[in-house]
């Protein structure tokens, strides 16, 4: 799962980022409102940690824009403001949770776990495609028909997760790479192609008819290879 931190206190961002990476989350960071909103609108995140007081654009304005663009990520607001009116304003704009500074890091992590666990329970059915299902807890691909399963490593999991969330459309290489490796990494098509190859082999290993199809010049798409003989 992927998290975006929009916070101008760099030391705090570093603490949160390091802690979340220990929980195997993918983390991107932004230190001002304009850049943070751009990342939130152009990438897919499961959760956004959003400060209120930010350079260029405050958190209230950002959350309003995100909701207008129908961004579905869970949003936890961080702020030094503790007044009831500010909290109510954040919730009225669409915030899912609110944490006042200073706060305990473990409390933030616990709230993140709770929000994402709830979200994934709601989306569990959507993380499937024909004869396969992605078990988000055990990190396994399951053949729904035969009940065979195989473990996937972290990057394989995120590639599959992205493809399953966009299972009815072509996913570009750039989008996949940003989803799995983050915006601040240098793109290497060899890395992505290697993990696509690993996934294909694991799908075959559990006798799935699902395949990751390369669409030349566009990206990848899940396809179901139905071998039923048509008369």
What is the fold's blueprint, element by element?
Blueprint: E1 2-6, H1 10-22, E2 26-30, H2 33-42, E3 47-51, H3 59-68, E4 74-79, H4 84-93, E5 97-100, H5 105-123, E6 128-129, E7 132-135, E8 140-143, E9 149-151, H6 154-165, H7 173-181, H8 189-205, E10 210-215, E11 219-224
Parallel strand pairs: 1-2, 1-3, 3-4, 4-5
Antiparallel strand pairs: 6-7, 7-8, 8-9, 10-11
Helix pairs in contact: 2-3, 6-7, 6-8
Question: Keyphrases for this structure?
Answer:
231 residues; alpha/beta; 5-stranded parallel sheet; 4-stranded antiparallel sheet; 8 helices; 22% strand
Quick take:
The protein is 43% helix and 22% strand. It is of the alpha/beta class and 231 residues long. Strand 7 and strand 8 form a beta hairpin.
Distance between the termini: 44 Å
Q: What series of H and E elements makes up the topology?
A: EHEHEHEHEHEEEEHHHEE
Helix share bin = 40-55%
Structural class comes to alpha/beta
Give the strand tally.
11
As a percent range, the share of strand residues is 15-25%
Give the overall form.
Answer: elongated
Strand order of the largest sheet: 2-1-3-4-5
Report mean pLDDT, rounded to a whole number: 85
Low-confidence stretches: none
Largest sheet: 5 strands, parallel
Number of helical stretches of at least 4 residues: 8
- Rg is 19 Å
